[in-house]
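Table S2 (continued). Query chain:
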Amino acid sequence: MRLVLGVVAASVMLGLIAAGCGGGASSQEKWADSVCTDITTWQSQIKKSTNDVKAELQSPESGTLTSVRTDIQEAVDATKQLATNLKSLDPPGGDAGAKAQQQLDAYAAQVHSTAAQAKQTVASVPAGATASETLRTLAPLALALQSLAVDTSTAIQSLKASEGKIKEGFDSADSCAQFR
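Corresponding output:
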């Protein structure tokens, strides 16, 4: 028992010593990591929902509209969550951090607007709509989601092009590797 306590105490001490030794991520890197993590999580959900909707519309059967509505609602919920997460981030200090957060807030507002538009489009499909009517009504969503994907890429590239430490934060954050 004493040996176990001694090992635990030594481990805690080593951890405290290591934590006190230099380094760690900068505020810019932590912020960039949060941005990239949130966007990556959102992209995964959007990709899943989009693929599910495509599959359902290619082989429509009874319940297709309900399934499509569920998938779109999941995408809308993920998009709202992304906007909330991005707007709630504390920007890194300085003018560059404030400017980067303004860019991110503008992107988040656009994402939120697209989510609201998608929800309205799905709600506009009549309850007894045929598969072809449903497809015609929902087809514009594909364009809106593709546009949002391009806007996401543009937003990340714009943030990465920021001055100094913001750029370094994106270059250093592991979760931003896919955007390099």
